[in-house]
Design goal:
With 233 residues, this protein is mainly alpha-helical. The protein contains 10 helices and 3 strands; from the N terminus they run αααααββαααβαα. The chain has a 3-stranded mixed sheet, with no helix packed on it.
């Protein structure tokens, strides 16, 4: 469920995850992925700054949180697949990237289908200019998730160097988990599309139900005061 609990942690955990994946990728195929991963890391950093300290639009925050949740599995699968195809099998650079990108492509295609579907089930309710989120909050600490991801990487990296078959099995497992997470978040993806379409029709932005809490967090943070700007509604 997408709420403002652990607001900053839920945002910056995404950037730290991508930074960690980028560092590990340098050890797998630096010449191939350095530029795109560096660009993705910088763009994600700017996106996190916008959502954490500048934007009061709920759709911006929800988009980032969903992207974080749905990109963990395919990114790890991509890293493992690159280690197999480029390091172990010694494929050519473009061929290795194309084959290793399959988990990312499959997850992106599933997200596109879920995003375009119409769903009557939604935990998002519009009240005035605010979005209220209902449901049971998952008690998952994003910083704990980032730590577990780092630990998982340190365990998987030597494993995938020694046992290609085990790494290939992990790629398949992570790909299946990624598709399941898309299914799990299908209603949130459909709700996000409906919210953005309504904003375009009405030429307005909807904000957080507890926007005062978000503003207080930003005012209490020196980074929040540094990047402070009044959101345009």
């Amino acid at each position: 469920m997408i709420t403002t609990e652990r607001f900053f942690g839920g945002i910056w955990a995404f950037w730290f995850l991508l930074l960690m994946i980028s560092v590990f990728m340098l050890g797998v195929a630096p010449k191939i992925v350095f530029v795109p991963m560096a660009v993705a890391t910088v763009m994600t950093f700017c996106w996190c700054v916008k959502c954490a300290y500048r934007s009061e639009r709920f759709a911006d925050y929800a988009s980032l949180r969903l992207c974080f949740s749905l990109s963990v599995g395919p990114l790890f699968a991509f890293m493992l697949a690159m280690a197999i195809t480029y390091k172990k099998v010694k494929m050519g650079g473009l061929q290795a990237v194309a084959l290793s990108s399959l988990p990312l492509v499959l997850t992106a295609a599933a997200c596109a289908l879920a995003y375009r579907r119409k769903s009557k089930a939604s935990t998002w309710v519009l009240r005035g200019d605010r979005v209220e989120v209902y449901g049971v909050e998952e008690k998952v600490n994003p910083w704990l998730l980032g730590g577990l991801s780092a630990g998982l990487s340190s365990v998987l990296y030597p494993l995938m160097k020694a046992y290609s078959e085990s790494a290939a099995s992990l790629v398949c497992a992570l790909s299946l988990i990624s598709l399941y997470l898309v299914f799990y978040h299908r209603n949130n993806l459909a709700a996000l599309r409906a919210l953005k379409e309504r904003e375009r029709r009405e030429k307005r932005h909807y904000t957080f139900s507890d926007i005062e809490y978000v503003r207080a967090l930003r005012e209490a943070s020196w980074l929040g005061r540094l990047f402070a700007t009044r959101a345009k509604q």
